[in-house]
Write a structure and sequence with these properties.
The complex is a heterodimer. Chain A is mostly helical. Chain A is built from 12 helices and no strands. In chain A, α4 crosses α7 (147-176). The radius of gyration of chain A is 24 Å and the shape is elongated. Helix content of chain B is 70%, strand content 0%. Chain B has helices at residues 2-15, 17-20, 52-88, 90-104, 110-119, 123-149, 153-160, 165-173, 178-201, 213-220, 229-256. In chain B, α3 runs antiparallel to α4. The chains are: A mainly alpha, B mainly alpha. Chains A and B meet through α5, α6, α7, α9 and α10 of A and α5, α9, α10 and α11 of B.
Chain lengths: 282, 262
């Protein structure tokens, strides 16, 4: 698809250098662009197997090198945001379900609905305005140190936790109506004990699925969050590469994110057996 | 109900934009640069002296249109795929669902970003990108509905009397899968508005000076300290509109298709 796009990558590579026909032909030959598309594809796959993702058209650095440099920032952000997502999402959903019909339930669900409706880039800007520019509690941009991670992680985690909260509430409510929960309460078990030992354990399967899938949303949300907070991560690399028509970098980053997403989904599927003995038995 | 009322208010404000404000959303006014909210400019002005409320009202047209076009495109692509896949089964089903799986490999906005990377940044390409990236969900849901509708006797009866396949799909099966499409489509408009605004915020959608909510936010982020209103109010507008659509969609889902309830 990338090679169907208008514009010659060889001309883009030359940048400000005069793009004479001879020079363009030379660059196209060096890049392998004068070969048939099928040959180019097979060559790309062969290089991929060896870990060669090509070179950036912009600065000639290896794509793999660029990704390795930026990966820690994105991993840090995704990890921190995931903690926020799971803690807030499951916590809010649980509180809401256990307080069904009360003001606590209504408030929690209103917050969750607002969270789902809020654009992530706007939330990021508002957090920067309040906590960086007005209160001066956290730096607004950059990478390095826990203080630069707080606002981006909260931005990314808050919005994904809203979806998880709604699903957690629904899941826990379904379990609360189960006969074995009524039995546990009838036996005189404390509410906290019933929630910990019976409700949470059974809700965990669905919640883990959704939380795992939220990692995918975190990956895509990180693209925007890194741009808002100017973190040198994979998301910002991708956006800059798109704006500069740096196709090898776009290909490399998109491939990495897609593979990571697939592996996460696989991990979630495999984790079912660990958390639900019934599946293991089957 | 609340969602419907809110949405109607947003649409009415959008349609009556030229009557609600005396300013031109594109007209520059250097003497009125970055004025705070006040009696003459209710939501302040931006770095070029343009009235923020005016740009939000006219931007609503762009954003709502983008959401509707993107969802329409997603339905036009996804529904026939799902219909064909569920009805014919076999090789057609396997091929189409592998294509859907391929598209679903990309999380969230990533596929839209890839499409914009290919087509180039513009509002039209952003609509295309958001629509194409949303189509796999419709294909999956419609296929699922077709699979549950197909075994019914009325389909078998239609086949028995010699109805052509396209007629069975359009006249007998499609009306029974409309409910989930309506629900998804309504909620999809909200998602499409946010996705398109995100692309514009990144500089990959609407281009200056077009008033689009995401683009307004992008313009305002450089002036957060001196003129917080430039970025704040467009974001609030997005949130209120998306909230209204989500409320409406949730209500429609409860009425039309409880199986989709989360």
């Amino acid at each position: 698809m990338l090679y169907l796009t208008p514009g010659d990558p060889a001309i883009i590579y030359l940048g400000d250098t005069p793009a004479t026909p001879a020079r363009v032909a030379q660059i196209r030959h060096a890049m392998g662009l004068d070969r048939p598309l099928s040959t180019q594809y097979l060559s790309y796959v062969a290089r991929l197997v060896r870990g060669d993702l090509g070179r950036s058209l912009r600065n000639d650095d290896t794509v793999l090198g660029e990704i390795q440099y930026r990966f820690p920032s994105s991993a840090q952000l995704a990890g921190a945001a995931f903690v926020v997502t799971v803690t807030l999402g499951i916590g809010l959903g649980l509180i809401s379900a256990l307080s069904r019909g009360t003001w606590l339930d209504a408030s929690a669900m209103i917050l969750a609905l607002l969270g789902v409706s809020m654009p992530i880039f706007w939330l990021g800007l508002m957090l920067i305005f309040v906590f960086s520019l007005q209160l001066g509690w956290f730096p607004a941009t950059g990478f390095g140190g826990w203080e630069r991670l707080v606002l981006p992680a909260v931005t990314l985690g808050l919005l994904t936790s809203a979806t998880l909260a709604r699903l957690a509430r629904s899941s826990v409510l379904e379990i609360l109506w189960q006969p074995y929960i009524r039995t546990a309460r009838a036996k005189g078990l404390a509410k906290g004990h019933v929630v910990r030992r019976h409700v949470l354990r059974n809700a965990l399967i669905l919640l883990i699925t959704v939380a795992g899938l939220q990692l995918g949303d975190l990956l895509s949300g990180a693209v925007i969050t890194e741009t808002v907070f100017a973190r040198p991560g994979l998301g910002k690399l991708l956006v800059d590469a798109i704006l500069n028509k740096d196709f090898p970098v776009v290909q490399g980053v998109v491939l990495l994110i897609a593979v990571a997403y697939t592996l996460i989904n696989l991990g979630v599927d495999v984790s079912y057996a660990y958390f639900d003995p019934r599946i293991r038995f089957e | 109900m609340l969602g419907g009322v809110l949405l109607v208010l947003v649409i009415v404000a959008t349609l009556l934009a030229p009557l609600l404000t005396p300013y031109n959303p594109l007209a520059l006014s250097p003497t009125d640069r970055m004025l705070p909210p006040g009696p003459h400019h209710l939501l302040g002005t931006d770095e070029f002296g343009r009235d923020v409320l005016t740009r939000i009202l006219f931007g609503a047209r762009t954003s709502l249109r983008t959401g509707l076009v993107a969802v329409s495109l997603a339905i036009v692509i996804g529904v026939p795929m799902g219909l064909a896949s569920g009805f014919y089964g076999g090789l057609i089903d396997r091929l189409l669902m592998r294509l859907v799986d391929l598209m679903l490999t990309f999380p969230g906005i990533l596929l839209a970003l890839v499409i914009v990377a290919i087509l180039g940044p513009s509002l039209f390409n952003a609509m295309l990108a958001v629509g194409i990236s949303a189509s796999p969900t419709y294909a999956r849901v419609v296929r699922s509905s077709v699979l549950s509708t197909k075994p019914h006797f009325f389909v078998e009866a239609a086949q028995a009397i010699g109805c052509r396949n396209w007629r069975i799909m359009l006249r007998h099966i499609l009306p029974n899968v409309v409910a989930p499409i309506v629900v998804l489509g309504t909620l999809g408009v909200a998602g499409a508005i946010i996705a398109a605004a995100a692309l514009s915020f990144l500089g990959l959608g609407a281009q200056p000076p077009e008033p689009e909510w995401g683009a307004l936010l992008s313009e305002g982020r450089n002036f957060l300290l001196d003129a917080w209103w430039i970025a704040t109010f467009p974001g609030l507008a997005i949130m209120v509109t998306v909230l209204a659509i989500n409320l409406l969609g949730d209500g429609l889902r409860d009425v039309l298709d409880p199986q989709l309830r989360t």
